[in-house]
Amino acid sequence: MTDSTVLRLLETSKVYPGVRALDRVSVTFAAGEIHGLCGENGAGKSTMVQLVAGGVTPDEGSLELDGVSDPYRDPAAARRAGIAVVFQEFQSLPGVSVTENILLGSPVLTRGVVRWRRAHELAAAALREVVGVEDHIDVRAPMESLSPAQRKLVEIARAVGSRARVVLLDEPTAALEAADSERVLAAMRRLRDAGTAVVFISHRLHEVLGVCDRITVLRDGRHVGTWPGAELDHDRLAHLMVGRDIDADVPERVKPEGAPLLEVDGLVAAPRVQDVSLTVRRGEVVGLAGVMGSGRSEVGKAIFGLERASAGTIRLDGEEVDLSPAGALRAGIAYVPADRQHDGMVFTLDIERNISLSVLRELSRRTWVDRARERSVTRTHFDRLRVVATGLDQEPETLSGGNQQKVLLARWLATEPRLLILDEPTTGIDIGAKAEIHTLIGELAAAGMGVLLVSSDLPELIALSDRIVVMHAGAVTATFARGEADETRLMLATGEERRVETA
Amino acid sequence: MTELRRRLGAREPLLGFVIVAVFLLVGLRSPDFTTWGNLEAILTDTTTVAIVAIGAGLVIIGGGIDISVGSTLAGAATVAGLLAQDGSAPLVAVLAGIGSGLALGGVNAVLVVGLRIEPIVATLATLGIFRGVLSQATSGKLIGDLPDGFTVIGTGSLLGLPYLVWTMFTLTLLAAVVLRWTGFGRTVYAIGNDIRAARLAGIRVARYQAATYVIAGGFAGVAGVLFAARNGTVLPTSGSGIELLAIAAIVVGGVDIFGGRGTVLGIVLAALLLQMISAAMVAVGVDVAWQNAVVGVTILLAVTLFAVSHGRRSVVHA
Question: pTM for the full model?
Fold first, then answer.
């Protein structure tokens, strides 16, 4: 493949405070191949995408494009050099036409008088290179009238433009149903056949195996190896990605029994949750696994009333719960969201007021907040969670991610919930705080609280959960009892359409 | 969505239908309403708000907002009025009035784009500042006795329609063409849809945003000149509150208050509808004091109906 090499990473490293995101990684991307990039969360895939896209520059090592070293230093230059990136999140302008989305920023649409006929022709031609003729999309239609798959195809057409040499697609199929994914995969094959170097990042191993000519595996920032796609199968690829012993240092608990605390029956919250039923017992930690877009987060949100459910019931101790955050809170459900920055912390309030936010009514007498009680209640939870801060009056902005998460947990524990829903409780926080939060989850369950743990961190799910419920495309596809699940089996279960039959 | 549904779902035909319906229904009750003269009067009364709303609508489509346009209008009217009163040639007075509108729009552009002050805050401030400076400068006095050569702009007519109405038609067409068929217009829509995506696509977002505020000032300037010419007098309080009517027309006309969607035709039709409704209320003898409430109800109706017909969960968020 040396002749057709377009882009080469030579011993590249990228160091962030406390972590080597990439550690002396060397990879080549060749024209006319689809190159899969696999690894767990935190393996270094995103850093590599940023590196290739010009978003970050390597601390060590170098990039070569067509044999030229260090060809660009920022995203705009990378784009001019022929590097196109399709990001995971939809990045489109909903209120304007497909043509304008494809030609965004192009002189055709930004200079002088717009010749619509020509613009539509250019856009249609760019789209045709990606989707072929059989998959017709009207370039005059407003973007918001398209299906998710069509929008993704339009984004690919926009990124590819007229002369991309290397196209990186970061989880392009994550939010799509299987049949729609196939349209995106077909687009990738078409680009490859036209001589483009295609880089495909996905958690869906069967898609990677089905479409990739070569597959590179990253783990903890290191290059595990690169293999021809035909030499790998599901199990081997999953093993290569995980490749280490599972650390389970959470104390064993008594197996929870008795009547269910939480009963979710036939929950539907379009578009991400299709008919989900599950139970959580008192003192039980139930893990909820699935790839991004599988509906795992939305189930947690729907139980707390943040996603509007169109069907189904939620019972807590046999009593039906109102499907609203206020109703859930009254019933004794607490929810700690995944996005601390946007959905959790109030950065204009100090730690004390962040903790007391959800219990102000309980702390009040005739509308006035009892300051002494507020202080004692918040102090109790602050101490219990061992928040590292100068005091209750510190602004949360200056706290580390782990300590912010502890403050949020304190807020919800102050409501004395019967059921605690945690969405990605340990992403982006340091190992020490992570271990403390794991210990806390174990303690809470041991004290009789039910915990629904939504997480993309498979070792975390395996270590903490009494049961793991696996979701795919909005439905429960498998359930593993404690001890049944390992990372390989979980990864296969989360990524596959077929039902994994397990007890 | 099929092409047909897309067309029928659009705001403009619906507005047109409602305008015709109101006109004819009120005519059943008071036949004087459905006369050419009355229609002409309603059109003429629409011009000021419509012209202001086109400019302010451009800002909103681009993702900003300008609530200072009422004061800008007064500033332009004062400059044009004073010059006309002092015997300057009408053309000089007109150009100076429009020029001062552009300049005041430039002040907003500097505050919002240069100093990065939130648009609603910056233009709330200039709404007060422009008006206050104006009162001081003119000592609160009335500008009157404008020469006929100037006031003919506001009172004369051509082919049976007042110059004012012709001006509104021309500016509507011009703005609609610019928004639909020029790179500038399409870029304003792109920025209003997603400023981050536009920036990543290499668009110099700040320039375009600044331009929208200057243009909004220019449209308010034109409206100010027409106001002075039509009334023959200008007060420092002239046109106060017109920014709210303009924003009402913009929202009823189908412009997304958060930017990126909407048309000039929709804005102008909505301005006409609001004017038609208030004329209708007078015609059927409803107390004028109710007019503000009716404008408010119209806004809520328009926005809610649109949200329902588009299956949106929230009324305002896309």
Answer: 0.73
